[in-house]
Please model this.
Amino acid sequence: MYGILASVINGLLVGAIYGLAGVGLTLIFGVMKVINLAHGAMIALGMFGLYFLAAYLGLNPYAALPVVLAGGFVVGVVVYWIAVHRVIGRAELMSLLATFAVSMIVIGLGTAAWSTSPFNVHVSLPGVSFGGYTIPGHHILASVLAIVVAGALYAFLYYTRLGKGIRAVANNREAAELMGIPSSRLLAVAFGLGIAVAAASGALIATLFPFTILSGASYELKSFVVTVLGGLGNPAGALLGGLLLGFIEGSVTPFISGSWTPVVEFTLFVVILIFFPQGLFRVGRGR
Model:
């Protein structure tokens, strides 16, 4: 009984980070209707960014998180102007190919630089023990930080002038431009924020598990599941979707082989697409 409870709690903690990764993906889609296939590569860059900040500059991994966020934002803005800006409003295949090309470039350069050998960010924090089981402290702190970052993004979008401008562009770009809102600049900011959040999720994942430059792919797939659970374009729903996905993982892990977990997740993905195409959660919409 305690083993199942510990597995569920761990699943929820990791699910908060899944939710943060999904927030970055759904933000970009919600604002500019771009399905970002470079999302996994940006998560991987966040992992390596934290690793080098901690290993070579001696920064505490958690203190380095703001640096990863800032770096992810800069990378996102650069990628937007180079690869995404020209395909906004065109056929969806164009944005898919553009972001896929960015992903392949990042993975190719990363593989050449760092190979596909696993890296680790060593973190040790006291955990919480009960019934002979321990919830690792770094899992708890990573999930708290994920929720804090997601909450900060939500507050930015809903309570700042710049955030309200991004929402206005997302709702009606033409009307926003007529009101004097510089839509192209705000789209670049929104894309940068989406990549920054993805990089932050990668950094938090790096404090939990070993990683390679290819690790982002699996978390990109989880992000798509989370996005569908929460509803496309709904950042708050994505966070809830991540918690739900983590709960499902934690619930089934004690009973089935880990190799079957993706089967359960993507079965859920298909079911939601068929029966709940708008997602399970609509929190934060229409405000």
Remarks:
- Residues 2-116+135-275 form a domain with the ABC transporter involved in vitamin B12 uptake, BtuC fold (CATH 1.10.3470).
- The chain has one domain: 2-116+135-275.
- The longest helix spans residues 2-32.
- The longest strand covers residues 128-130.
